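Q: Structure tokens for this one, please.
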Amino acid sequence: MSANKTTATKMDVAAFIRSSDPKKVEDSFTLVALMERLSGEKATMWGPSIIGFGKYHYKYASGREGDMCRIGFSPRKDKFSLYVLDCDEKDQLALVKDLGKVTMTVSCIYFKKLADLDMGVLEKLITLSLERTKVKWG
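A: Here is the predicted structure, written as tokens:
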């Protein structure tokens, strides 16, 4: 089995944010503050472009295992990527519908700017994801 490409690094989060798209800098620092408050964890770089908070160890039935951040985001060139666990569950899907202008995949939500989101709904979604990750992976 190949090694996981996304692992925690010692890269400086603030320096990474300042080097990203200038239109995303303020929103990125706002997300860092929000996620640090909700998770109780300091921001850490995961791989070259994901800002993560906390970590958990997973092991799939296939035998693949590794560590990943409990929640995270990345200020990608076109859109932000928000990484949460199990956002395909019914209650989280309902929250995503109320979140604002987003698109999504199984565990990733994409948006252009925080102004497009309902921040109260975002907090609920992140909190629920943190709770689910703890229940599922410890």
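A few notes: The chain has a mean pLDDT of 90. Residues 36 and 42 are 6 Å apart (CA to CA).
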